[in-house]
Design brief:
This protein is an all-alpha fold. The chain contains 12 helices and no strands.
Length: 232
């Protein structure tokens, strides 16, 4: 029994050492990134886009749809969502693979501004530190608008305004509820869900977004049904 406990203690110490090393490397990655290019410069770069859209210009239906499908506790957390991370960890363990990340909108913004898409733990840790930095310096509205002005919507569109004009030939203020919800679902996998690539998959994704909105109290089943009629 003593021998077993000793081995267990050694394994725990090894695990802790590895975890501390990964956290340290992630913190170093974050510090180097922000020292090479300060956060305010990155933000200014996004805001300088001709097609930049402010939060106040976004339809509420679009905001609700993005929040529902990407980060339902966005307005409540401080940059990371412990509940989502825990759920993702359980699903990853079950699948014995990295299938779910649990990233918040703030973490996704941090990744888009500073890091690669490579799925390594050090990068995820750096992303967490950067998310805290962003949350400490910008409001939730600022973060949301920076996010929708820096994500990829497919077909070469990197802002919500470009995507709205490209897919629907409309200004953002002219979008229907149907279009708002469809647009919210595209960035998850633009090469799959872009309406120009596969209209049927785009509609399936739109329904997934609607289901999340119903689940989170933004829509009723009846309202969702009425919205779907807008395409008829």
């Amino acid at each position: 029994m003593k021998k077993f406990l000793k081995i267990l203690m050694i394994l725990l110490l090894i695990g802790l050492s590895i975890a501390l090393l990964i956290i340290g490397n992630g913190y170093t990655m974050y510090k180097e990134a922000i020292e090479n290019e300060p956060l305010e410069e990155k933000v200014a770069e996004i805001r300088s886009k001709e097609s930049y859209t402010e939060f106040s210009e976004l339809p509420q239906m679009y905001v609700n749809a993005v929040i529902s499908v990407e980060d339902k506790r966005f307005f409540k957390h401080g940059g990371i969502d412990i509940i989502a991370i825990g759920r993702a960890a359980i699903n990853d363990i079950k699948a014995m693979s990295y299938v779910e990340g649990g990233s918040t909108i703030t973490q996704q913004l941090a990744k888009n501004m500073y890091f690669t898409q490579e799925k390594i733990m050090e990068r995820k840790i750096a992303e967490v530190f950067m998310a805290w930095e962003i949350e400490a310096n910008y409001s939730k509205e600022d973060i949301f608008e920076l996010y929708v002005n820096s994500i990829y919507f497919g077909d070469g569109y990197y802002t919500v305004k470009e995507a709205c004009e490209g897919y629907f030939n409309k200004e953002i203020s002219e979008m229907t509820d149907y279009e708002c919800i469809m647009l919210a679902g595209i960035p998850n996998a633009p090469s799959v869900y872009a309406p120009t690539v596969n209209p049927e998959l785009a509609k399936q994704r739109q329904r997934q977004v609607m289901d999340k909105m119903i689940e989170n109290g933004y829509l009723t089943e009846e309202e969702a049904s009425e919205i779907l009629k807008q395409a008829e």
